[in-house]
Write a structure and sequence with these properties.
Elements: H1 3-27, E1 30-35, E2 42-43, H2 45-52, E3 66-70, H3 75-84, H4 88-100, E4 109-111, H5 114-123, E5 127-132, E6 140-145
Parallel strand pairs: 2-6, 3-4, 3-5
Antiparallel strand pairs: 1-5, 1-6
Amino acid sequence: MTSRRLQRNVFVLLLVLSCALRGFAQERKIAVVVNANNGVSTLTTAELRKLFAGEKRSWPGGQPVKLFVRAIGTPEHIALLKLLGMSDAEYKKHWTEQVFRGEAQSEPATLPSNGMQLEAVRSFAGAIALMPIDDVKAGVKVVKVDGHLPGEATYSLE
């Protein structure tokens, strides 16, 4: 096989894999999860935006909100940016400004895996995160958004 032909075949293979992975990522349903002991069972999209933008810092009853997010490029991070209507750069700037103004101590904790995110939400009473519904396990609670759960036709995070 010639070098040019091999390069073309590798390129086609990478293109097919990229499309397949993109499709897989888009099919994953993203859930809003909180610690299982959190009394909140439903949030509006507006409340969710305020929580993830750091504008709402406590739950009913006074428990501090602890935000956990996934890394740039993950389906969860893409859903977060879509929810907030921000780009990655705008998101970073938003949190840098909040810290600079003293409105936040730091930007949300970024976790490298859904498993770590699951453990973090289980461990912190005020935790909230976005995670694929397939990764939700005991110790966390899926919160309805505008009265709907992931997979329902009018669920706003899909």
